Amino acid sequence: MPPSGELVADKGYDSQALREWLEQRGTQPVIPPRNVVERTFCRFKDWHRIATRFDRNIKNFMSARALPISQPS
């Protein structure tokens, strides 16, 4: 069976050795880096804290709401 043009996988398959092997076969890896996925889930957790008003102290709640969310470049 010939190698596929692309391989779509989750962050569990993010290793340099696998990426190099796929590229040698002519397959382009479509695997998000682990840090991008982990940062995304951390942002979701931050918003969950604000949405559920987990911070009982009004100063903590309002300061979390006021923090700017930086966009990855």
Task: Explain the overall architecture.
This protein has two domains: 1-32, no CATH class; 35-66. The protein has three helices and two strands, in the order βαβαα. The model has no long low-confidence stretch (mean pLDDT 78). It has a two-stranded parallel ribbon with strand order 1-2. 1% of the residues are buried. It has 73 residues and is mainly α.
Widest sheet: strand order? 1-2
- Mean of all residue-level pLDDT scores: 78
Supply the number of structural domains: 2
Give the ordered list of helices and strands: EHEHH
Measured by DSSP, the beta-strand proportion falls in 5-15%
Question: What share of the residues lie within helices?
Answer: 40-55%
**How would a crystallographer describe the biggest sheet?**
2 strands, parallel
List keywords for this structure.
73 residues, 2 domains, mainly alpha
Put the structure in a nutshell.
The chain has 73 residues and is mainly α. The protein contains three helices and two strands, in the order E-H-E-H-H.
Give a topology summary.
Elements lengths: L5 E3 L7 H10 L2 E3 L3 H18 L6 H9 L7
Parallel strand pairs: 1-2
